[in-house]
Amino acid sequence: MAQDLRSRPLDDTLSDDSAPHDNDAATTVTRAGRRVARLANVWWRVPALAALALLALPLYARVNSVSGTFLSHPTTLLWPLLGLSALYAVACLLIVGARGPRSRRVALVELGVLLLAGVVFRAVVFGTPPLISHDAYRYAWDPYLLAHGVSPYLHTPSDPALIPLRDGAIWPMLNWRNAPTIYPPGAQSFFFLVYLVKPLSIWAVKTAITASDAIVGALLLALLRRRGLDARLTLLYWWSPIAVIEFAGNAHIDAVAVAWVLLALLLAEERWRGARFAAGVALALATLTKFYPLLFVLAIGRRRDRSLYVGLAGTIALAYLPFLGGGSRSTGFLATYVGQRFPDQGILVVAIARFVGFFGGGDALVVALQAIAALALCGVILRWRIRRGPSIEATTLGLTALYFALAPHTFPWYVAIVLPLVALLVGRHSRYSAASTSNRLLPHPTRPFPLRREGELARRRFGSGSPVQSFRMAVNRLGSALAPTSRRYGKGAGGIGSAPVLAMWLFALWIPFTYIMFAPGGNAHLFVWLSLATVVDAALPWLISKRHAVFAEMHADTGASDDPQVHSA
Fold first, then answer.
1. Which helix (H) or strand (E) holds 529?
2. Which of 305, 317, 372, 554 is the most buried (most CB within 10 A)?
3. What value, to the nearest 5°, has the Cα angle with vertex 131 and ends 127 and 135?
4. Can you list the alpha helix ranges (DSSP code H) found in 15-151?
5. Mind listing the pLDDT tens digit for each residue in 330-369?
6. Angle at which helices 202-226 and 185-197 pack, to 10 degrees?
7. CA torsion 314→316→321→323, rounded to 10°?
8. Mind listing the pLDDT tens digit for each residue in 378-407?
């Protein structure tokens, strides 16, 4: 068989329809071979995903067991995180790099396996109270104060006037007891709703945050389906150690903010009356949960988009109205938070701080330059959106990158917003898209993937979805992200290059290791170097293309100067 493949022309070998046969037996063999190829397209991926999920379970259990003690022995957390990151990366490679199954039934099985595995991951880490971070205890404390008529923006947990309100379960676990709360009114409303269900309960908080995490997964599925993209790309968020550990484990409020952002993106594309107003309200609720989603108005807003701006501004104003009695203190710990200087600050903040420190400036100047840089870069992104017309998620990802570059802190749970956006943009970069509205669960190929002759022969021998071929395809696709082609920075594929998308995914992959970097004895400078590597990875294709353009121009000038007619003139 191998000799026969080598002797036949490539076009005949790769053609979808075999050449006419002399007898029916040969035709039957060809049809059987096609059935085998279809089975080979799907037989291995479901067991592979299941095996990866099974390998991840003891690692998540290990993370749970060392969460409260890893600061004294950071390597006890390092190895489980390395294993989980590797398994997650392999799973993403299987989904992003492999051609989707042609059968809707098999597609449902694959999607069901990855969704069920994500649920099991969350069940493993849900059973223990938050140990890596104690922020969730503040979520239970703040509504307790509100229920007693005390503003959490004006009173710190250590305030002597609040001694009668101290309990034995939540108050001892609070961090930053000498600082008022930083969480805006939208987050406080969420906390209060949880408090109404069960007061001073960390398990009620964890349940609500985990439910919000599930809503994020459902909204991402809805966005992928609406765009006709591969629903299995939900794995980029659903299997991420960030989402599992930080939401189901540590119960961070960012899950609620990400859910509101995705809802705003979904509503922004609706055409029914009032959809723009509803999108503005959703974006306002995201901003009232975590401040940074306010940047995303540059991605969602339009000219003369009165309904969206009214919904956004009106909701924010109404939410802050009950707290205006505190004056400038109505934002609580926010002013102090922005002025803090820790090793996990954004890469541009590091550059600004060193520049200001070189000339003997203070923190006030650093904050002022941060604001100026933020306004300038927002203007650049807005101009890019107007001129290039990128997709909403591409602009949102660019604004997210801007926020992390200028953020005073970059905690792992902050980066969760990157994962749904990467999933949407990876789908746009994909060579495969849904062939019809009747089967949007998983895509069908619309054109062949560019592979070399031996790769095509491997596809014919092993099946288009075999592990060998899928690995080749995944490597080619990830490698092509660094291709210095100008079209990757054009309007196609969401209007953003694939290298920035890959860089942001890698950023989300390494950010959980900041727990080890900033632990006693860790290397905090590694955070800066990895941030620089992310920037270089995102900009490398553009730099290479500019380098080629400069050399081409120099070559053209040299050729013109060597022209005899030029010298004679």
1. helix 525-561
2. 305
3. 105
4. 24-40, 45-66, 75-97, 104-126, 135-147
5. 666 666 677 667 788 888 988 898 888 888 878 788 888 9
6. 120
7. 180
8. 999 999 898 888 889 999 999 999 999 998
